[in-house]
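Hello again, I could really use a second opinion on something today. I've been staring at a protein lately and its backbone has me curious. You're getting the sequence in one-letter code plus the fold written as tokens. I'd be grateful if you could look everything over and explain what you see. No rush at all, and the record is pasted right below:
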Amino acid sequence: CSWPPPVTEEIAPGYHSIVPMDLATIKKNIENGLIRTTAEFQRDIMLMFQNAVMYNSLDHDVYHMALEMQRDVLEQIQQFLATQLIMETSESGISAKSLRGRESTRKQDSTDKVLH
């Protein structure tokens, strides 16, 4: 899947001073390790959407597409974060149960040793 090329000054004069972020830059920043967390990704993608809305007028298709994509992306990020939280909670629950199980076994072993 190839990313669309960044907008050029010839196509949209002044665009980069208003919209200093695009999908290709975000992808490059992920690959280079400059974006490492969901929060960093969300910051840059929201910057891109907000700036696209600021740059384009209300009657432009890009304005409306940016708002729609922003809503969709926010929803996807929230779903991802919720799933991540469930996974972390599930993993810590398993760890706690596992530790409690080991603790019960140790207590039983020590009780058995005292009784025998």
